[in-house]
Write a structure and sequence with these properties.
about 450 residues, alpha+beta, 4-stranded antiparallel β-sheet
Length: about 450
Amino acid sequence: MKETKFKQTEVGMIPSDWEVCPLNFFADILNGDRGVNYPKDSDFCDAGIPFINAGHLKKCQIDFSCMDYITYEHYKKLGGVKIKKNDILFCLRGSLGKYAYVNFDDAAPASSLCVLRSKKIDPKYLFQLLGFEYIKTQIIDANSGSSQPNLSAKDVGNFNVIFPPTIEEQQRIANALSDVDTLIVNLEKLIAKKKNIKQGAMQQLLTGHKRLPGFAPDERRKGCHSERSAKREVEESSGYKMTELGLIPSDWEVKKIGDFCSVKDGTHGTYARHDKGCLLLSAKNILDNRLLITNDESFVSEKDYTEITANGYPQKGDILVSCVGSIGRCCILETDEKIAFQRSVAFVRNKSASTRFLMYAIQGESAQAQLEESKNASTLGGVYLSALADIELMLPTSLDEQTAIANVLSDMDAEIATLETKLAKYRTLKTGMMQQLLTGKVRLV
């Protein structure tokens, strides 16, 4: 194998036959029309020529779900650049550095974007370069000192870019990284699909509209198409009954959380923060089904922890519910570690039901809608403990059925978690490949 010699440059060590040049050396940086013909809201229509703005750039792709369109006649009047296939769109304002590859002809850019049009470099190689850390660093440097995130086409053109000497090597690098991108995108789609399936299962199982084998009486219809038929169903079979939350199985019940759970919240006081001691967490640490603890959390002293928890504290097995900001997220506390919580977290201690079923029930559509209606008028929008205790849930009277439902949903969560772990590995792989391939440490020649 031929040994690669390296040289020191302003962006670090690169192969001696690679170059560092300003982006405008091998790509045109172009703006769209910003004059009198620039579209107004009244100019947009339901179909026509895409008029793409920064909000349409998501995950390095163009999102057409909320696209703005202009007529072909208006498009022809526009000056400036017209978007073509193999162009790259780059965000100049707001979320600086967002970018997307264009795989179609005929579109127009909003003033929040510029168009990068390759002339001496493979466009897909340039696309991969834009996600590299040293580009992100140059974006920050170019915007330093500005009160509003803002770049000019000139700023972008001055970015230093590393590139191999031949188009063939550029294409090999781009193809290798693109293959990993495809794996990541496909896995993201699969995870989204699995989450939608789980959401549908929750709606069916947590309302009794679908009963698991062994729990649904034979010959019982699972639903009805109108209120009238619902009442007739109740009268004829007594399989379902109408409640304040809607139609539920006759062997289910509606209960308030406070009827069978004790509900408390974290500290309302202010305490000195330390680098070590006992963890002090808040609602931001509560995700659906798991407690997130990062490396930069706050700690309180043992003395303050004792004071904070004097009137109660969450124990292993309690349900933690975020009740300020993004209310309604919840998880089960799985550790005996000493952890204090701020008042933005409520502790729901179950007394007579399946704890895991309750966690899912609180995440269900009915409970989430009630929590939304119970928001107080504070700046962040929160839910008082009394309002949380009054949330009504639909429950099977059978603890076995509660457990069976929770097990089905837990299995779905486990499958999603496995896929998300795999996705994280792919993303780490992509980062490592970029570091190796885009600096020439590994050569595809």
